[in-house]
Queue: 2 jobs
Job 1
Amino acid sequence: MAGAAQLSRIAAIMLGVRDLPASIGFYRDKLGLRVIMQEPALALLQCGNIMLGLSPRHMNAAPLAEAVEVSFGVDNLRGTHTALEAKGVVFLSEPRAVTPTDWAVHFRDVDGHLLSLFGPEGKA
């Protein structure tokens, strides 16, 4: 496809939320993401090179929420797991090995979106 544009990265992930202030509080205060823009119907938070958008308008697609998982890469899964538990994040299970070198653990945000941590096991 000569001259065709090539997709090179994911710029943002948008999540539908019921209560924007509560969702901002979860991602900012518990997960430590930085709010880079906030309006009455949209907030954008920075997570590495990807923006996470929170939007009440996206709730129309709520039945699809179970088909999506946002996975946050971490350098020390057990340490991050312990730190987030201390902030009140409730995990769905204990961390487990998912590849020969990486571990994962799942949790949900205030709207029920499936989230996970993914990375080397590390130490608590």
Note: The beta strands are 12-16, 34-39, 42-47, 50-55, 69-73, 96-97, 103-108, 114-119.
Job 2
Amino acid sequence: MDFDVSTIRIEPMSLKDLDRVLEIESRSYQAPWSRRAFVSEVTDNSYAYYYVAKKGDTIVGYVGMWIILEEAHITNIAVDPDWRRLGIGRYMLETMFDRAREHGATKMTLEVRVSNITAQNLYRKLGFEERGIRKGYYTDTHEDALIMWKEDLGPQKPRADQVKWMV
């Protein structure tokens, strides 16, 4: 199936998105986050930035990150199982690189289950490297988490108001 990832829109997550986000969350994780956790992240956490990926009006994925000083931390990411392997996860992460840079971050980190080889492969392709292990990190299975870092988010793209065109 040919799929054009440019047809996906990345938009800030709102409370009205949570029913669909929670559906994707429960289809993606053995120990899904609660509605309360997402509400808190979206409404109360000044370090948090959460986004949904939409195809038309359908939410097909979501991603969240915290930005503290120059570090961005991916807190949660999932693509609906029916929409996986189309490049949406990669597109969401690349968009987060841009958003993180816009907020002054220069590097990014995340944790991933040691058994989630598919996700690890994607992260490596995007420049993340292994930096450590968090023993028993996941409360549902006590599985270890691999800590990965992307040390350089690349040059900041100029904002539209910073670009001057020569005539």
Note: The first strand starts at residue 8 and ends at 12.
